[in-house]
Amino acid sequence: MRRAQPWRKVRAAFGTLAVRDRIRDADAFWHEFRSRAPARAAEPDTVRRTAAGPWSRPGIWRWALAGACGMLVAAWVTLRLFLMGAVSEPNTIKSLDVGVSHSAVLILNDEPSQSTILWVAGMEMRDQT
Amino acid sequence: MGKDSAKLIADAQAGDMDAFAALFEALRPMAFAVASRLIGPDDADDVVMEAYLKAWQALPRFSGRSSLKTWLYRITHNCALDMIRARDRRKERVAQEPAEESGRTLETLPDETARAPDEDTVRAELAGEVREALVRLSREHRLTLEFRFADGLSYAEIAAATGVSIGTVMSRLFNAKRKLRRVLEEMQK
Prior knowledge:
The complex is a heterodimer of chains A (about 130) and B (about 190).
Chain A: H1 7-13, H2 26-42, H3 47-52, H4 58-87, E1 104-110, E2 115-121
Antiparallel strand pairs in A: 1-2
Chain B: H1 3-13, H2 17-25, H3 28-39, H4 41-58, H5 68-90, H6 121-136, H7 139-150, H8 155-162, H9 166-188
């Protein structure tokens, strides 16, 4: 059995594994590059999109923000219309029965705020019946 | 990054192809080595050309957060993967092509021992053993060892070339060295 090789020798052996000897001549490489690069520059670039994904594009965020704002406005308008519809019936007092003796009844209708104030004056707090 | 490099990058970003060539010619041997290890020497030059064309296209957005080398190796890695996928799609799996998932065959590895001088037979023998042992390792371990010790890439560069994090590179390197030693010991018994 042979003795195990020290790591420095093993590491030195890696020097023989270089694969750069088959590299193309620089002139030939750059000649081809120069002939192909202008056409490539005119194409849409896909490097960044494929590397970072669509969320890296600033336009996405602008559209997302605009969409979120639009949804908020739509929700607010819908809610407001719904609530206004619910309270749009005018408040009317069709009959009034006061269980104690009183001197006067005053009904105030305020149409702009759609509110009604009912004022009963001179009520006897003791039941007369 | 030196002042000259910064100027060359700025010029290349502005569309100066001579500046681009001046910057990237020096990186071509290593880009070739990266491509060659990922896809094999037969297609490595095509991968490098594609990577350089993409780099030319994307250079205006290069921000300098990583080194130019690391940036280029990442592009080369992506181009090699694209080519492997295209190759798979075409179902042109040829036995002697080294881009198979199982890794390269012994025959396709550069056979330096054949050219080794007679007086250095011991070193040549060890080199042959290392080559043989590397074939027995997983593709990830073999690539990591080759990038590190045959090509001299830094951890960050290996991470870019293999598409993993630096921590993974460190972990793989530790395990790969251990496995390589074990395989070498088994071979020497």
